[in-house]
Amino acid sequence: MRVVTSLPHAVKEEEHVLIPVRDGARLSARVWRPLSSDAEPVPAILEYIPYRKRDLTSVRDSIAHPYLAGHGFACVRVDIRGSGESDGVLVDEYLEQEQLDAEDVLAWLADQPWCDGHTGMMGISWGGFSALQVAARRPPSLGAICIASFTDDRFADDMHYMRGCLLSDNLAESGTMFAYSACPPDPALTGERWRRMWLERLDAARPWVVEWLNHQCRDDYWRHASVCEDYSAIEVPVFASCGWADGYSNAVLRLMAGLDVPRKGLIGPWSHKYPHLGVPGPAIGYLQEVVRWFDRWLRAGQDGRADVTDEPVLRAWMQDSVPPSTSYEERPGRWVGEHTWPSPNIRTDVHPLAPHRIAPRDAEAVDEVLSVESPLSVGQFAGKWCSYNAPPDLPYDQREEDGGSLVFETDVLTEPCEILGAPVVRLDVSANRPSAMVAARLSDVAEDGSATRVTYGLLNLAHRESHEHPEPLEPGRRYQVEIPLNGVAQAFPAGHRIRLSLSTSYWPLAWPPPEPVRLAVHTRGSSLELPIRPIAVSDEVTLRPFDEPEGAAPLATSVRSPGEYHWDVSRNMITYESALDVLKDTGTVRFEDTGIEIGKRVHERYSWTADDFSSPRGQTEWTMTFARGDWHTRVETCQVMTCTPTEFHVHARLDAYEGAIRVRSRNWDVTVPRHLV
């Protein structure tokens, strides 16, 4: 990324501004704005997240917000209630109170003498969620949003559940927020209030996974803040982006199809990162795109300032074939564009499934019954549901996974083939249990036999008709089911094959069903639908090239102790216990502007024994330290989740220390009934 030191506007920064909300609480904000805004008001852009502007996101913030402020915007980074130096407690995600607070913040911004009354929102992950959800509430000053790595459907396509299947990221995210919600504010900003604020947070902390397990169907809890319930509620222009290695790319495609406002979609090869910091590369000049978007929609009386309406609705990185790897520095490929979505350029090719073959489009259907009963080991090389690119967390060579799967393959491709969109697997199936899942994977098989997973999809078969009202399977009865795979742009070269793999478990990416399942697939009624995009050489000629990534100079940090990263798969051949261990230790980092030193160590372990479907166990352990001078605090959390065929069990522990003194120690033991999961 190119560091820009000279910007069109000189920028002033206010490190700690308290914004009042309707119930008297105050939220902590950091503000960057042009010096000239004292006399010439400008639009304000809000990023609203719970990840501590003072330290944990301060480096990322320092790259983006001063850059945008230098281009004529007031940028305001607010920690939501209960995080950072903001008042209150943080007890769950996307609550009504959180969104009411956001409306109050936007109203406050619009009323400031340095704001011209126009506001926008931007953000990635929670920040992208926030902006989209608040936009659906139509606050009067909000004129446009730029969002990255978000979802419009909190139940069917988020880190908690995927089409009714319980994801292990549900436990991992709970571990993140269990620790984050218990972190102290900085006494340098709050004064002696810090200890009272911290103890209030510790007393309110809880393992959020319990709440999420209490909602195993699509109910009002998930419908709240899922904008797919009513796309028409969004009335402002939307610039939405994500990466194919992220967990949220489907939402970009759905928004481009569902919204009826000016909109632009961007999907690159990236993991869960802003596109100007995107890995795998190539990263792009995303902040320049954000400036253009907000210039176009927030500048009063300047509609022609930056015309972005004639560009494609969707730009996507068409990924070239690569060998399987758990991480990539770069993904080769090219940008393609579609001016409408769904696009008339995309055709759907329906390929019948034959015995172990993906048949040609015009092939006559073959009536045969094939069965699979996958071991729990299928999924150990699946990577994370959402890649953060640290440590390497992408799927590895799929050949070992395919050994426990039902596999279908095309003939060797005689010419290149490219897909853009969501492949769909349609199956005529029966099962021998009332509760079952199907994992469907699409792979690019090279001439040497190595298999790179291109996309995948999950379906809890009890959710085949409805996420609101799942129904158990009748053992032996045949059902027609549809499994949409995650959207993707992928090129398959001549000489390769396309492989579809079906399994009845995919642990630890998704929690397995209560019992082993034998699934029967009737080939005559089963097919694979591929969204074929004819290869066109005109894209690179007609598309405006992206600029080089650039941003403001990042805040200075120094490493006090080195970090450590591991991603290990193991199997004990005496006890038959297998495990995936993920260690993410950032070491200790000093933030030079504030002098605070922060350490973060995370260990996730997902284990199982042989094919005992009651043996899966997930554990997350977090240690976070905050120190400056004689101020030392530490938060330690642990969550353990196990199961029986009828229940989930959660044990959690929280310990907090001020210096050597443990100021809080809390434990939870909770049992949640399984509901066809």
From TrEMBL:
SUPFAM superfamilies: alpha/beta-Hydrolases, Galactose-binding domain-like
Keywords, in A-Z order: Hydrolase
SMART domains the record matches: PepX_C
Record InterPro entries: AB_hydrolase_fold, CocE/Ser_esterase, Galactose-bd-like_sf, Xaa-Pro-like_dom, Xaa-Pro_dipept_C, Xaa-Pro_dipeptidyl-ppase/CocE
Entry GO MF terms: hydrolase activity
Residue stretches making up the Xaa-Pro dipeptidyl-peptidase C-terminal domain: 291-552
Superkingdom in the source lineage: Bacteria
Name of the protein this chain belongs to: CocE/NonD family hydrolase
